[in-house]
Design brief:
The protein is of the alpha/beta class. Strand 4 and strand 5 form a beta hairpin. It contains 14 helices and 13 strands. About 50% of the residues lie in helices and about 20% in strands.
Length: about 350
């Protein structure tokens, strides 16, 4: 009788269900994530996701399409628009920034072939410069003095929700080029879904506050952090975390990589750069922001499953062990119960 009871206790006490509870749920969670277009670097990411209360969204390429187009060109009275586009387009052609590429493409469409650029320099967050046809051409926020006509044109463009870029040569601003991006059709719905999950959305961008505020209003975001240089994005994430928030960062560009790595949870768009994807914890394959809400929901459901599994496994052991120790449980029944417990958890 003692031997039979001991065998029943050993069978009941075998922690199969406990051992299966967590890894099985995580495996299924990561597999379901792949079906939804969410690539998860490690199962532990699912656990960190549930604590997130603030989600920071990059603007260009994340909330917006990132496919910018050149709209209008304003020049000073003594500057030829054709020449401005030719020189500015040549410099921006060497840039990798979406705004620069939009200007280069728009300039080439309007004036034809662009000349070669020499001594190209990219000053992160401020602009680019280079030598074209013997002139030192500058594009961006690198001018000390801006003529009133250009300042007014830039201000009006920003009021209209467009990005204004100053351009000129030999240290003098000679024109303003306005570039516009469009908000993704799914961004507003994605923000609504994130809010429904109890998350506080924040828009983070290097663009000026007026442009950022226009985009934020379109998608339903109240908290905007604008005029942030690429190297300072990670510092913003660090500051938010220091305030006691658990922060998720969603981005797609090279300049988002440090912020993605700094955040508690980094979500990189699969349509973005390799640097961003490598720095993120989750990759949203389709580049659809709505999938970010799916990722949060998936992680929370996975953890609910884990807790349910553990409760069942513990409950089974707690209830059955006294019966087995008292000799009231046949080892065959104990074996069947243990097997059923494991199958139930799976």
């Amino acid at each position: 009788a003692a031997f039979t009871a001991a065998v029943a206790v050993l069978i009941i006490a075998c922690p199969c269900a406990l051992g299966l509870a967590t890894p099985t749920a995580l495996m299924v969670g990561t597999g379901r994530g792949a079906q939804l277009g969410i690539l998860i670097k490690g199962p532990e990411v699912l656990e960190s996701t549930r604590r997130v209360d603030t989600v920071v969204l990059d603007k260009t390429g994340t909330v917006t399409t990132g496919h910018m187009t050149l709209h209008t060109v304003h020049t000073t009275h003594d500057t030829d628009e054709h020449e401005l586009l030719r020189l500015t387009g040549a410099v921006e052609h060497a840039s990798e920034h979406p705004i620069g590429q939009a200007i280069a493409t728009g300039a080439a469409d309007r004036v034809g072939a662009l000349p070669a650029v020499q001594d190209f320099q990219n000053i992160p967050g401020r602009g680019v410069r280079g030598r074209v046809d013997g002139r030192e051409v500058t594009v961006g926020r690198l001018f000390g003095h801006v003529p009133d006509t250009l300042a007014r044109a830039a201000e009006q463009a920003e009021r209209d929700g467009r990005t204004a870029v100053l351009a000129g040569w030999d240290g003098t601003a000679r024109g303003v080029l306005t570039v516009a991006d469009t908000v993704k059709d799914t961004s507003a719905e994605a923000v609504t879904r994130l809010r429904a999950l109890g998350l506080h959305p924040v828009l983070l961008t290097g663009d000026n506050h007026r442009v950022a505020a226009t985009v934020a209003r379109a998608v339903g975001i109240d908290d905007v952090i604008a005029d942030v240089r690429p190297e300072d994005k990670a510092a913003v994430i660090t500051r938010l975390r220091a305030e006691g928030r658990t922060v998720a960062m969603i981005g797609d560009g090279v300049n988002d990589a440090a912020a993605l790595a700094t955040a508690d949870l980094g979500l990189a768009l699969g349509t973005g750069t390799d640097a961003a994807i490598e720095a993120g914890d989750l990759t949203l394959v389709r580049g659809d922001l709505r999938v970010a809400a799916d990722a949060i929901r998936l992680s929370r459901r996975t953890l609910t499953t884990i807790k349910g599994n553990l409760a069942w496994a513990f409950g089974y052991n707690v209830a059955a062990l006294p019966l087995a120790a008292a000799g009231l449980l046949n080892p065959m029944i104990a074996g069947a119960a243990m097997a059923f417990s494991s199958v139930f958890v799976v």
